[in-house]
Write a structure and sequence with these properties.
metal-binding; isomerase activity; alpha/beta; 9-stranded mixed sheet; isomerase; binds magnesium ion; binds NADPH dihydro-nicotinamide-adenine-dinucleotide phosphate; globular; 9 strands; Ketol-acid reductoisomerase (NADP(+)); Rossmann fold; single chain
């Protein structure tokens, strides 16, 4: 088992009295900024005046400035805007970042795929919470923490790792455990996970199951409950206690169906495709494609997104969820 750091491993001096600029105030940015402020750090949020985040961060009681201003005199600058905006943002702010500062990422995309070639005098680190920002904030407030990955790309003062660990501690990550990795490992596994399993794989499984039942003449509402709504129960059991706990809570019949039918749905050819997807991540094909799509105005991306939103499962789901307003309380 690799070493997993906890609160006792943190050298609080590494970030003592540090001024931290958080660039971006979305999912991760808001959670990091508020958690770090509550942990006693001097936090400034860097967002454009024209956007919605500016007023939002102010309303949350934080110091706010344009990114180029926010980075001035900051000891640590966290890049927490969408991945494909960070290259331009880095160009905008780099002239104002002081010598020897630390820049931090929550995902390794831009460093690993060489979109940002960081100045040589900077520490370059990664703290990637393994969960969405809403959860990073909520768990911190509950005295818990989302496990996080730590990586160092450039270490100019032999303090980079200690600084990153102190930052992880400031957002609550050390309560859940901090595991060291490399920018390459974090980037490639994160992309693979979201493509093949968490986002791409899981939603496609749900939608294809729903379609199969509806096309066979079953009520869409019943298909929705079965293929989407109930998934949470299974995922919670997996999350809490792995395959063992999941199996303890499902019926004998469900277990037999799982063991004999599951491998027919996700089969050898699925795994072969997963390996292909991983290769496209590793050789940079996925990154090149996504960067080109973004540059070309996201035409395909927008079209596919619209098709997802217009799917029958969404129409049926929206109606059924209206009856369960409490579902909105757990928003991540
Ligand atoms: P968001 O999409 O939530 O970021 C939105 C924020 O970025 C807003 O404050 C927005 O400001 C600002 N922003 C958007 N476009 C620009 C731009 N062109 N220039 C300057 N600011 C801009 O980002 P996430 O939190 O999802 O992701 C941030 C980083 O964290 C990424 O590297 C991501 O991979 C990583 N990460 C994300 C996770 C997640 O759960 N979302 C999980 C783990 C890592 P405005 O209001 O002005 O538009
Ligand atoms: Mg990701
Ligand atoms: Mg999908």
């Amino acid at each position: 088992m690799p070493q997993i750091y906890s609160q006792k491993d943190v050298n609080k001096k590494a970030l003592a009295k540090a001024r931290i600029a958080i660039l971006g105030y979305g999912s991760q940015g808001r959670a990091h900024a508020l958690n770090l402020k509550d942990s006693g750090y001097d936090v400034v949020v860097g967002v454009r005046k024209s956007g919605e985040s500016f007023a939002k961060a102010k309303k949350d009681g934080l110091e706010v400035a344009e990114p180029t201003e926010a980075v001035k005199n900051a000891d640590l600058i966290a890049f927490l805007t969408p991945d494909l905006t960070q290259k331009d943002l880095y160009k905008d702010v780099i002239g104002n970042i002081k010598q020897g500062a630390t820049i931090l990422f929550a995902h390794g995309f831009n460093i690993h795929f060489k979109q940002i070639k960081p100045r040589k005098d900077l520490n370059v680190v990664l703290i990637a919470p393994k969960g969405p920002g809403g959860l990073v904030r909520r768990q911190y407030q509950q005295g818990r923490g989302v496990p996080s990955l730590l990586a160092v790309y450039q270490d100019v003062n032999k303090q980079a790792k200690a600084i990153a660990l102190a930052y992880a501690d400031g957002i609550g990550g050390t309560r859940g455990g901090v595991l060291t990795t490399t920018f390459a490992e974090e980037t490639e596994t994160d992309l693979f996970g979201e493509q093949a399993v968490l986002c791409g794989g899981a939603t496609e499984l749900v939608v294809k199951g729903f379609e199969t039942l509806v096309e066979a003449g079953y009520q869409p509402e019943v298909a929705y409950y079965e293929c989407l709504h109930e998934l949470k129960l299974i995922v919670d059991l997996l999350h809490e206690g792995g395959l063992t706990k999941m199996h303890q809570f499902i019926s004998e019949t469900a277990k037999y169906g799982d063991l004999t039918r599951g491998p027919r749905v996700v089969n050898k050819s699925t795994k072969k495709e997963m390996k292909k997807i991983l290769t496209e991540i590793q050789d940079g094909k996925f990154a090149r494609q996504w960067i080109a799509e973004n540059k070309g105005g996201r035409k395909k991306y927008n079209k596919m997104m619209k098709a997802d939103f217009n799917h029958k499962i969404e129409k049926v789901g929206a109606k059924l969820r209206e009856r369960m307003p409490w579902l909105q309380e757990e928003k991540a």
